[in-house]
Sequence to fold (359 residues):
Amino acid sequence: MTKFFQDILKEPAELSKSLTYTLGAGRAALDEAAGILKKAQHIYLIGIGSSYSAALAMITLFHAAGRPAILLDAAEFLLYGEVAENAAVVVLSRSGKSGEIVKLLPKLTARGAKVIAITNTPDSPLAQQADVTLKMMASFDHAVSVSMYSAMALVGGLLTVATEGKLTDLLTAELQSAFTALGAKLNSWKEQIENSGWLDSKAAIYLLARGSSFASANEARLLFEEAAKMPATAVSSSNFRHGPQEVIRRGMRFAVWIDKEKSRNQDLEMVKDLSKLGAKVLTIGQDLPASAGDLVLQVPSLRAEWQFVLDIVPIQMAAECLARFGNQNCDEFRLCSYIVEDEGGLIGPDTKLEEVTAR
Fold:
């Protein structure tokens, strides 16, 4: 059993733990952070890597509430960005030590921005310099982000609904129930994926989603690249139909996240057409018909805008399975550091180039 798969198995418990802490011992910090965002004239969300993907879910929730927010890549903001006056900045980083994150903090302070940190490392430079720190309180993963991603997306979502005054006991109960149901799904998903015929380490992969589930598609792209060591493309389902659809060829692999309310019928029609064109399609969603793809992975019931905290898990399992099928070590980075603390270049000082290029 890979360490990646072990991390997935403990993910439901880690999500439950993070939720319990955030709404218990961490509630004062959550409310303080929400108060800052309510008063701010401008809201920025900043992350990099999997943290950027988690912020994609947050920005969808903010926009749905009619509250404008700007999402920025930490490295791009460091070199090319600037915050407006009277701004609040939510900085997401599992370690709080990434090079770009640490370097941008003085830039935020100089502009008088209020900084809210979402991190799993309370003694990190980010946490120490933030005005408010929201601790994820999840266990670190062995290598690629598993619980680190999903717990960050969860805490970010809780902050968003708290800002809008929509963090209710009913939502909390629904989330806890969904995490319990999630744990019961893992072994059946693994069996489905391994026996489906969808896995192919030679085929091109496209990942399509809408709404908050686009965070899952974007994170899935990173998982296929980091764990299975193969390229993948994430694009919104709607944008895919405006030009990129010309790439469709027989044998291509698609993963499509299905929203249970707003775009369900349109996206199921797209899945049918992908199949007619010879693609192999994996679908992820709630209450999907058995005919909705070559591999249909049903996620537990949860309100549509929160599906993103569940629908990342089946694609994590697909990435782990694909890594094994392609004889790739998903528990080891070939080139990347666990925490990227410097900028420039791709090859670390301890990298054995002859081993890397031989694979």
